[in-house]
């Protein structure tokens, strides 16, 4: 991981019981698509988007192997915000 100029709203280190040797670093950007995308670019993550039944959009940027750790950055937003600077 490199340094970043954006601050996530939340950060978690997760090691699920079913995959204790595959930890994840999870960064949450509260409705902040531009910050998520800046972080995505700085950390060389790959973005995906899913529109949910209620019309909200889940945006996730991830990379599976950063020294054995999966890195995930995500936000949930409205469709109009997701389209900006895609």
What is the structure about, briefly put?
The protein has two helices and five strands, in the order ββαβββα.
Walk me through the structure:
- The chain is of the alpha+beta class and 86 residues long.
- It is built from two helices and five strands; from the N terminus they run E-E-H-E-E-E-H.
- A five-stranded mixed sheet has the order 1-2-5-4-3.
- The radius of gyration is 13 Å and the shape is globular.
- The two termini are 23 Å apart.
Structure characteristics:
alpha+beta, 5-stranded mixed sheet, 19% helix, 86 residues
* Range of strand content: 35-45%
* Class derived from helix and strand content: alpha+beta
Instruction: Kindly report the spatial arrangement of strands forming the biggest sheet.
Output: 1-2-5-4-3
Main pleated-sheet profile: 5 strands, mixed
Net shape? globular
